[in-house]
From TrEMBL:
Gene3D superfamilies: SRCR-like domain
Annotated protein name in UniProt: Lysyl oxidase homolog
Segments crossing the lipid bilayer: none
GO terms under cellular component: cytoplasm; extracellular space; membrane; nucleus
Domain SRCR, chain residue ranges per copy: 44-145, 169-282, 307-407, 417-525
InterPro entries: LOX-like_protein, Lysyl_oxidase, Lysyl_oxidase_CS, SRCR, SRCR-like_dom_sf
Catalytic reactions on record: L-lysyl-[protein] + O2 + H2O = (S)-2-amino-6-oxohexanoyl-[protein] + H2O2 + NH4(+); N(6)-acetyl-L-lysyl-[protein] + O2 + H2O = acetamide + (S)-2-amino-6-oxohexanoyl-[protein] + H2O2
Family matches, as SMART domains: SR
Alphabetical keyword list: Copper, Cytoplasm, Disulfide bond, Glycoprotein, LTQ, Metal-binding, Nucleus, Oxidoreductase, Repeat, Secreted, Signal, TPQ
Chain coiled-coil ranges: none
Primary localization class, coarse: cytoplasm
Cofactor requirements of the protein: Cu cation
Gene: LOXL3
Enzyme category, top tier: oxidoreductase
Amino acid sequence: MRPVSVWQWSPWGLLLCLLCSSCLGSPSPSTDPEKRAGSQGLRFRLAGFPRKPYEGRVEIQRAGEWGTICDDDFTLQAAHVLCRELGFTEATGWTHSAKYGPGTGRIWLDNLSCSGTEQSVTECASRGWGNSDCTHDEDAGVICKDQRLPGFSDSNVIEVEHHLQVEEVRIRPAVGWGRRPLPVTEGLVEVRLPDGWSQVCDKGWSAHNSHVVCGMLGFPSEKRVNAAFYRLLAQRQQHSFGLHGVACVGTEAHLSLCSLEFYRANDTARCPGGGPAVVSCVPGPLYAASSGQKKQQQSKPQGEARVRLKGGAHPGEGRVEVLKASTWGTVCDRKWDLHAASVVCRELGFGSAREALSGARMGQGMGAIHLSEVRCSGQELSLWKCPHKNITAEDCSHSQDAGVRCNLPYTGAETRIRLSGGRSQHEGRVEVQIGGPGPLRWGLICGDDWGTLEAMVACRQLGLGYANHGLQETWYWDSGNITEVVMSGVRCTGTELSLDQCAHHGTHTTCKRTGTRFTAGVICSETASDLLLHSALVQETAYIEDRPLHMLYCAAEENCLASSARSANWPYGHRRLLRFSSQIHNLGRADFRPKAGRHSWVWHECHGHYHSMDIFTHYDILTPNGTKIAEGHKASFCLEDTECQEDVSKRYECANFGEQGITVGCWDLYRHDIDCQWIDITDVKPGNYILQVVINPNFEVAESDFTNNAMKCNCKYDGHRIWVHNCHIGDAFSEEANRRFERYPGQTSNQII
């Protein structure tokens, strides 16, 4: 039976249609869609599953024939145009690789290019109607904002399958419901249907089915259950079965993609001789629910991970990076799909993938692109087991970096924290819930030592992304009737999933500054900057200069020389400086802006510029064991866009007291020949050392990733010349390569200066 077209129906009418096969006709719309201005006789609909009413595969009817759009060159701007054609105000995202299933019939449009302002898709450039070299595995979809255009007559054709679909799945513990620790890993499988939650008959239930269910719920794998116990328990309980005949291959990302059979309303004998389906899921390392599970997982030999996620605002999402030849690199998004994304998610200890992201949706990487055209079946244990192409620089660019969003277990962490007093839901004074045993109560957090890293964890626990600011004073936000400080001494590394995983004082709070005005607050954001130093340029430009003291008065004023310079015979003599250029890229999804507003920038008469950040970078010379023997620091003389990628315009410049910052896709260049762009090595003895540069060392400005802010180089100094080589970003190498780097800092040089 073909899918049904539903026009303007009430929710009750739609529900009746789903439950009754007698309404499978196609009612007439209230307004002829062909009369819509600019549509030129085209009709649009959203199709596929699983999906919500405002998302799906885009289908266009032209000349009486329905067809799809290829995802080649598809952009968010094209999605905006199509969502308006469908009657929504705008698009919030788009999908590729037939996320909502492959369509049928013609592929009407390929290489669709829109600016986003067009009134109709016919105004966009393309290869022409019906001219395409794609298959339906490349069908594009859109995710529209759930808000209708004012006065829009709903001529959008929403495809509804003639049978029910499973939209939500949960595990219900057979005993102790409501008292079990989260996440729930074992219990009865329940599916949400229009008339409520129902159980699934276990006749024919397989491990493949359990694998799919566990993946949907955020667990990487499943284990066998005590079937005899649950059968005995089922005899003492009543069940409401709504689904049977589930047959999954095991690679599906959603239960709806499996073969399913639903019980009809008049079926009296449901699941005869059977019982409710039960699953037991194995949580990943981050979500191990008990110490026993943690010990069991830790007892297994763990090699270094060969895949990781970077740049995601939430746990279980990010740009996919893989380890090859001891160096991390990205994955090209060609042929990237849910099967490959699910392999990555499960390999990292999450469930199956919710989304396979293309087009550097999680920010662009830097350096090598290791893989392209990854084709996974979904059964592989590692992405490296999937067929793939090793690519060259000409094959792909970082604008095509692949990413994922994984299914995560429900832990309820977001219910134990909230914000109050802010102007929006993304800001406010932080309140946490404590207690147990005993009544639960809400309280505040002492603002002492509260900073960006702690705020990052709070925003992550709230599900609000990154932290723009971590505030130690919140007197301007009313706390209502919550005045008790229940947590103090909070110190986080920035990677924790919730504040209770951070170090803190426990039940005995100690706060230097009392009162609600000195309690912690946050301002959260879905996007953040990500600064990265161009390490190769440091290696290429490093050299030694003996600079006369009479040319260093300004540098001394800004504390850019070693402490021994204070006792030098000014203006006679010189200082030996290790000089190099710094090119700092912003690869994140938000501009990098100084924390302080321009009203508080400090004017430095000597150099004739404003400092927007007192310390922007640290420059250090370290011994092989990490002891610092020479240092320099670089104030943000002026953060500006020196150069940008081809499609990015400069936004920040220093001239005329301009706004300071680094735009996404741009970089700020500090040349080797400007003041303080050095380390004073006058007192350094000959030997083997490590050159280290750290950007944003005090975490003054929030970034999506702080692990890539440090750069290290091997260097060998003989008292006259210096060899600088093997420069790399701190997290660019494997753990073993980093150990080798630190063990042999004076290895044979590839550069003599």
